[in-house]
Design goal:
The chain is mainly α. Keywords: Coiled coil.
Length: about 130
């Protein structure tokens, strides 16, 4: 009976931790999603500025330098977007691994409680002898 109470306590604690972890995970994913959207908007704006500059006639030295700076900024922003997407994938993968580990631990806990309730081989033999 005490094993069953212990299993219930462990299950309750895991549920509390799981809900807290899910809240934190959701916050992280929302933050990363927001950062990705902002970076994508920035990329669109940079690409539009570069396109506008490319279509203007008679590029002076200052405009050529400005265009070069825009291209560099565009490249850096693309790299930033790539890193943010990798971070999002990493967070999702880490969550999947954590969920799998929690499921395995839960199964082991259930198996242990089932096994502890079974009579030992010695007890079974004694019953047959009696």
């Amino acid at each position: 009976m005490s094993v069953n109470i212990w299993a219930q306590m462990v299950k309750s604690l895991r549920e509390d931790v799981s809900s807290s972890s899910e809240d934190k995970l959701q916050q992280i994913l929302e933050h990363l999603g927001s950062a990705i959207r902002e970076t994508q908007d920035k990329l669109i704006n940079l690409q539009q500025m570069l396109l506008d500059l490319s279509t203007s006639k008679g590029a002076s030295h200052d405009e050529a330098e400005y265009k070069h700076n825009l291209e560099e900024t565009l490249h850096k922003t693309q790299l930033q977007l790539k890193r943010l997407k990798q971070q999002m994938d990493t967070v999702k993968a880490a969550d999947a691994v954590q969920r799998a580990q929690a499921a395995m631990a839960e199964r082991r806990s259930q198996q242990a409680s089932m096994i502890s309730g079974l009579p030992t081989a010695v007890e079974v033999l004694k019953r047959f002898q009696d």
